[in-house]
Design a protein that fits this description.
Protein name: Apolipoprotein N-acyltransferase
Pathway: Protein modification; lipoprotein biosynthesis (N-acyl transfer)
Family: Belongs to the CN hydrolase family. Apolipoprotein N-acyltransferase subfamily.
Low-confidence stretches: 330-337
Strand order of the largest sheet: 5-4-3-2-1-11
Organism: Paracoccus haematequi
Oligomer: single chain
EC number: 2.3.1.269
Shape: globular
Length: 492
């Protein structure tokens, strides 16, 4: 077919996708992302047959950035290990379609040249936004995530993570729009200007910390041992011992599904848990309500009574629930990660929780923290965010570091401190600038005693959300496709 590149030529965009992914954690080579995407967009803007090259590039991006997807299947390799390579290939191929389809449509609606570059960049940005919503959403490995370890990430307080992607794609499109030297000068100036804005924001003093003292407990319960009855007793005792260590605390926080029993079966051990905590205890635990099971965050009062309860509402498809689960349960098909029933039921939605003696907070259980939209629309603004998570599912290479990076972005976007309690790590205290004050690394049992950072005033992103970035990308796409006459380099 005319315009379709030979398959042997797809190794170049595949390599560019792999290089671009080096900007994401744990590598953090942020400059690799705009440089690799610049070459990719420059090539795509000057030729037909965009679909396959962009599919190859997207495959490289998602294969490396989402390589942790194999880890859940290796928890019990004798049962699920054979599925790991299929999961990686299908995940990378599915993600690649979010690059190839919009880029091909943008190319089909434009002629080769600068406007095609603009259209492809805008289409990729809109695709990143759409990926946070469609099929329940998976805004993981967004293009803008490459900036999290740089001062430029502070611009997310105005633009959100999607705006960081807009900056990246703007830099990447420049070489296709103007001559090389002006493109480099303009890219350096834009990056340097936004970097300076970030440094200025980071230099501003934060409000004094809240007087509340937190204790975050990380039991390091390995996923392959966590539900074994003998080891579960060991991990439970570890939670109690770490909680009871001397030191002031106004709340003790345990991670997601911290214990191997249901809330309804916990009465015999609730007094021991309350005594060890010596303060209100917030813990992840599964609970049952009739025939339904929930992945929950529960407050245990010092008198061993149950306080506020939050049920996770944004569940992991096929991990925590299966679409049409009630029907499929009849033939024995259930969710991969759920330990009770055939899958969890969803809670009602985002809430603000109250714990006596503490500022109010918004709970986020694991996966929920990757969705920035869940921070907006609450009736009242919380003073902090709490993420209880079990990153043991993600292995030790890239997944936990990427998950932590996204939690840091939530702090920047919202202007709220984020407290992270992780089962095997990385537990952390994150200030409203997204900086990690204290942390416990992967694979370590321990605790963090820390003051609760105070919030900043509401950020512009919390007021506007992604609407300005989405509208700007749609406008640029519309302007690019309305003119079909061939055009030259804009500064040629």
């Amino acid at each position: 077919m005319p315009g379709r590149p030979p398959l042997r030529q797809l190794w170049i965009p595949l390599a560019l996708g792999l290089v671009a992914a080096l900007g994401l954690p744990p590598f953090g080579l942020w400059i690799a992302t705009p440089l690799a995407l610049a070459i990719l967009i420059h090539r795509a803007a000057r030729r037909d047959g965009v679909f396959l090259p962009m599919l190859a590039a997207g495959f490289g991006w998602f294969a490396l950035s989402m390589s942790w997807i194999v880890e859940p299947f290796l928890v019990e390799p004798e049962i699920h290990g054979w599925m790991a390579p299929f999961a990686l290939v299908l995940m990378a191929l599915g993600g690649a379609l979010f690059w190839a389809v919009p880029a091909a449509l943008a190319a089909r609606l434009t002629v080769p040249g600068p406007r095609r570059a603009i259209a492809i960049a805008a289409a990729l940005l809109l695709s990143d936004w759409l990926r946070g919503w469609i099929f329940t959403g998976l805004p993981w490995a967004l293009i803008g995530h490459a900036w999290i370890d740089t001062p430029l990430a502070q611009t997310a307080a105005w633009t959100g993570a999607l705006g960081l992607g807009a900056i990246t794609l703007t830099l990447a499109a420049l070489p296709a729009l103007i001559r090389p030297l002006p493109a480099v000068v303009l890219a350096v100036a834009l990056t340097g200007g936004l970097w300076s804005v970030g440094l200025a924001r980071l230099s501003q003093p934060l409000p004094p910390d809240s007087p509340a003292r937190l204790r975050i407990v990380q039991p390091n319960a390995q996923q392959d041992l966590k539900w074994d009855p003998q080891w579960a007793a060991v991990f439970f005792q570890r939670l109690l011992d770490l909680s009871a260590e001397p030191g002031p605390r106004d709340v003790v926080i345990w991670p997601e599904t911290a214990v191997n029993f249901l809330l309804e079966d916990a009465d015999p051990v609730l007094p021991a848990m309350a005594q060890a905590a010596g303060a209100p205890l917030v813990l992840g635990i599964q609970r049952r309500d009739g025939s339904r099971f929930y992945n929950s965050l529960v407050t245990l009062n010092p008198d061993a009574t149950i306080g506020a309860v939050y049920d996770k509402f944004h569940l992991v498809p096929f991990g925590e629930y299966v679409p049409w689960g009630d029907a499929l349960a009849r033939i024995g098909i259930g969710a991969f990660a759920a330990q009770q029933g055939n899958g969890y039921s969803a809670g009602p939605g985002p809430v603000v929780m109250q714990v006596p003696g503490l500022p109010d907070f918004q709970p986020l259980i694991c996966y929920e923290a990757i969705f920035p939209q869940h921070l907006r629309g609450l009736d009242q603004r919380p003073a902090w965010l709490l993420q209880a998570t079990n990153d043991a599912w993600f292995g030790k290479f890239s997944g936990p570091y990427q998950h932590l990076a996204q939690a840091r972005l939530r702090a920047i976007e919202s202007g709220l401190p984020l407290i992270r309690a992780a089962n095997t790590g990385i537990s952390a205290v994150i200030d409203p600038h997204g900086r990690i004050r204290q942390s416990l690394p992967l694979g370590v049992a321990g605790k963090i005693d820390a003051a609760l950072p105070a919030p900043l005033p509401q950020t512009p992103w919390m007021r506007w959300g992604n609407a300005p970035v989405v509208l700007l990308a749609a406008l640029m796409l519309g302007l690019a496709i309305t003119r079909r006459r061939p055009d030259r380099n804009l500064l040629a």
